[in-house]
Design brief:
single chain; 9 helices; alpha/beta; 6 strands
Amino acid sequence: MARKPHPISRQDTALLIVDMQNDFLHPDGAYARGGAKSDLIAALPPRVADLANACRAQGMFTVATQFTLVPGRGGKAMIADHLRELRPFLRDGDFAPGSWGQQVIDDLGPIDSCVEKIAFSAFYQSRLEYVLRRAGVQHVLVCGIVTNGGVASTAREAHVRDLHVTVVSDACAAFSTATHDAAIADLANVVATAPLNSVLAELAALT
C-alpha cells in the first residue's frame, strides 16, 4: 500500500536535489566524455528546475548533494573499486572538490546549501543531517539522479533518520525507464512518492 505524502510546509520542508552536477549532465562533463549518457537523464533538468523554482518561490530551503571524488596523494582521485570498474573513463580531476565538474548545473541555482557526498547515500560520512536539522527540516522532497542509486539510498536513509520523505517520482531519472520504474516501486514501500504535477499544485496552494 502506497504511503501518503506528508504535507508540505514552508517552515519544515526542504528540497533535496541529488547529484545534478556538470560532470554527470553537461555535454563537456566526465560522463559525456566517457559515453555514459542517457536521454532520460538529459531531459530531467527542466523538471527539477520547475520544482526548485516553485520551492524557492515559497521561501523553502534548498539543498543539493555533490558527488565528489576526493583527491589523495599527488592529487590522485580516490575512486571506489566498484565505480572504477563500472566507469573506467573517470580520471583525476573529475568530480574534484571545488571543480566545475563537481558543481550543480547552472539551471538549478541558487542553492542554499551544497553537501559533498562520497557514496550512494548522501548521509554517509557527510554533514547533510547536520544541515537539515539546523535548518529545522522534518520533511524532504527528493529529486535528481540516479533513481536506483543516489536517490534511493539517500531517501531510504532519510527515512531511517526519522525524516518524512517524498520522492518526486518524475523529477528523478535513471539510465533506463525499467530501472527507474522498479526503483520507484521499491521506494514506495518505504517512503512516499508523488508525481511532479501534484507537488507543484500543493506548493502553489500554500497560504
